[in-house]
Amino acid sequence: MVLKIQFSTYNIECGTDEAGRGCLAGPVTAAAVILPVTFKNTQLNDSKQLSKKNRVILKPLIENESVSYGVQHIFEQEIDTINILNASIKAMHGAISKLKTIPEFIIVDGNRFKPYENIPHATIIKGDSKYLSIAAASVLAKTYRDAYMEKIHEEFPMYNWKQNKGYPTKEHRAAIKKYGITKYHRKSFRLLPEQYKLDI
Question: How is the cofactor bound (predicted)?
Fold first, then answer.
């Protein structure tokens, strides 16, 4: 499927997406990207469909060819305070606020968003596999978040965040069981399946 460049009829349209929503540790990271209407790239797709190698190749290309881009992390403590949905939207708002060009329209991956300033927006299910600007935002969100997780992996290598990026893999859950949690874990998340079982 060929990804489209525009959703709206506005000239300056920004796409936004987040990464790390379902993780047990680390931030939720969002990116916002405005692409020129002349932008073309056949490799660009939803970051989940791309290999790490291709994401790494696309990142500088998106940064260089975009009209503007912004990236925002929202960290564990805030996720635990305001919940992951609000944190995801706040990260998207933060990424949009970093754009050097003010968008006239915002397209959002998924089905939940809160209005940003007075800019009209549309939520698009699987938008990252339909529109280039959302796909570009998904690549930046994922690569920036992965780089952060690889950095904190050095501090706590036993959780292997370098590999699992904080997602709830069997290995990650086994490490939580063995070593407990770190300051990077989201305390409001169900970190282990048996947390909900009561010893009566």
Answer: Manganese or magnesium. Binds 1 divalent metal ion per monomer in the absence of substrate. May bind a second metal ion after substrate binding.
